[in-house]
Amino acid sequence: MTSGVFFCLFFFFFFFLTCDLLYISFAEGAATVEKTIVVDQGGLGNFKTIQEAINSIPDQNTQWIEINVKSGVYREKVSIPASKPYILLQGNGMGSTVIDWNGHSDNSSPPSNGSIVAFPLASTFDSATFTVLAENFVARDITFKNSYNINNEAAVAQAVAALVGGDKSAFYRCGFRGYQDTLCDFLGRHYFSSCWIEGAVDFIFGFAQSIYVSSSLWSTIQGPQPGWLTAHAKLNDTSEGGSNMTFAESNCTGLGANRSQRVKWEKALDPKQLEYFVSNTFIDKEGWLAQQP
């Protein structure tokens, strides 16, 4: 894929979607935020680090809590465990609030901390700058960045910017920046709106059932070698998934949108078939998006 912005519909088993084709309206603000925690590096908030704010939230929380992160580059690894649902992570803008770390995979030895998958894949997953495993998570106006090898100056290694492994997660106007394996859309149902995702090799991968709408995917790899947008993250040959896959494009624009040299078996979806993939009901039959703040 030539460097540049590529607006397109990609449908895989884990149902990734990015397009300008359809704008889906739903209510933001249906749920009430019961508490706001302010994070400010200058000491003008409740905490100076994002992880401290997360740690302050009680396990098995049942009320929406906003963590308002003021402008700045926060050099830390951030993790939201499965025991801390109902968190809204609010930044001051994609270019103003950044969580940045430079972790990368090292398969020479097992990771020292517990991991959600077995070694050696654990090394890739544990490289993530940001990890969320909790259900009901929302992020707005913030960038998740893994700065390892982002300018392709070091040895190529998996370096995840964000790992999303909880059900019912939504991201609005968020950035995901890395080089290899930028966004691990791991497990659960997820919604991405007006996001920026960039990388070079497999920069979206995972098992999740997700919709990407009105989002920009930027391939940073330099020619003549093409970039890879996505890969299905099968943990082994017997893993479920990946056997029922649909790939289609519709109303794509950009340097990579010319289909004249594509494989002949690529399927062209009619409007009714396309609606099945891009409708919110595909991930949101019970209306969980409208119930989030």
Automatic annotation (TrEMBL):
Provide the GO MF annotations for this entry. pectinesterase activity
| Annotated signal sequence range | 1-29
The pathway noted for it is: Glycan metabolism; pectin degradation; 2-dehydro-3-deoxy-D-gluconate from pectin: step 1/5
**Which EC class heads this enzyme's classification?**
hydrolase
User: Know the name of this protein?
Assistant: Pectinesterase
Question: In the UniProt entry, which residues are flagged as the active site?
Answer: D202
| Annotated Pfam families | Pectinesterase
Kindly list the biological process annotations in GO that this record carries: cell wall modification; pectin catabolic process
Q: Which family does it belong to?
A: Belongs to the pectinesterase family.
Determine the domain of life of the protein's source: Eukaryota
Q: Which UniProt keywords apply?
A: Aspartyl esterase, Hydrolase, Signal
* Catalytic activity line of the entry: [(1->4)-alpha-D-galacturonosyl methyl ester](n) + n H2O = [(1->4)-alpha-D-galacturonosyl](n) + n methanol + n H(+)
Identify the residues that the record assigns to the Pectinesterase catalytic domain, covering every copy. 37-242
